[in-house]
């Protein structure tokens, strides 16, 4: 089973400082530095991907924020059938076999990095594929595996 990666604002700040304020002071992102930071936060990224990201960053094709977004895409999320079933059942507080908007909102407000109300509404809209106001198991699985 894969585990989730949690990166704090301090770790992001430390990463930014590591290459903007290094001994060279040139602001060049090296593969070794990026690889080291990824290893420190337990993120496994192929060396070829790291090289590509460094090139894009150093050519100013992407900024620091976009670099972090692209690295975030490398995070593996466990979407096994068993985990999705257990998760759906945990969120289905009234055991109706459907997730209501309130159940989804309740689930998301408990997160450490809580999405805004607008983001929650957008997520619900994306999950509710048939527009019936409820999220069934198939819609939940489809959304989680996107």
Keywords:
about 150 residues, mainly alpha, two-stranded antiparallel sheet, 2 strands, about 5% strand, elongated
> Major beta sheet, specifics?
2 strands, antiparallel
Report the average pLDDT across residues: 78
- The quaternary state of the protein chains shown equals single chain
Low-confidence stretches: 1-5
What's the N-to-C terminus distance?
19 Å
Strand content: under 5%
Number of separate strands:
2
Order of helices and strands: HHHHHEHHEH
**Which class of secondary structure composition applies to the elements?**
mainly alpha
Query: What percent of residues adopt helix (DSSP H or I)?
Result: 55-70%
User: Any idea what the shape is?
Assistant: elongated
Report the radius of gyration as a whole number of Å: 19 Å
Strand order of the largest sheet: 1-2
Query: How many individual helices?
Result: 8
What features would you describe in this structure?
The structure is a single chain. The chain is mostly helical and 146 residues long. Helix content is 56%, strand content 3%. Helix 5 packs across helix 8 and helix 6 crosses helix 7. The longest helix has 12 residues. It is elongated. It starts with 8 loop residues before the first helix and ends with a helix.
